[in-house]
Amino acid sequence: GGVYPCAFSGADEEAVKLFLQNKITYPEIYRLIESALEKTQNAPLSFESLELTDKLARATVLDEYRRLKC
Questions:
Q1: Which positions ≥6 away from 12 have C-beta within 8 Å?
Q2: Do the beta carbons of residue 3 and residue 43 sit within 8 Å?
Q3: How many CB atoms lie within 10 A of CB 22?
Q4: 3-state SS of 40-64?
Q5: What tens-digit pLDDT sequence spans the chain (70 residues)?
Q6: How many CB atoms lie within 10 A of CB 5?
Q7: DSSP states of 1-45 as a string?
Q8: Is the pTM of this model over 0.90?
């Protein structure tokens, strides 16, 4: 519960976008989402916490992608 579904959603959208651009393989989607969820810290639910969680999860996916592809 908490903000984790929001983190999953944001991370999934970014990872699938990379997959559809042929930048990652299908199994890498899972790895990128997992990385984002591992770095997510639960917080009380509010619009602000959900917005921040979404942004951080998306940024984590992109950062991890850049790290893996360098």
A1: 29, 33
A2: yes
A3: 7
A4: CCCCCCCHHHHHHHHHHHHHHHHHH
A5: 899 999 999 999 999 999 999 999 999 999 999 999 999 999 999 999 999 999 999 999 999 999 998 7
A6: 11
A7: -TTHHHHHHHHHHHHHHHHHTTSS-HHHHHHHHHHHHHT------
A8: yes
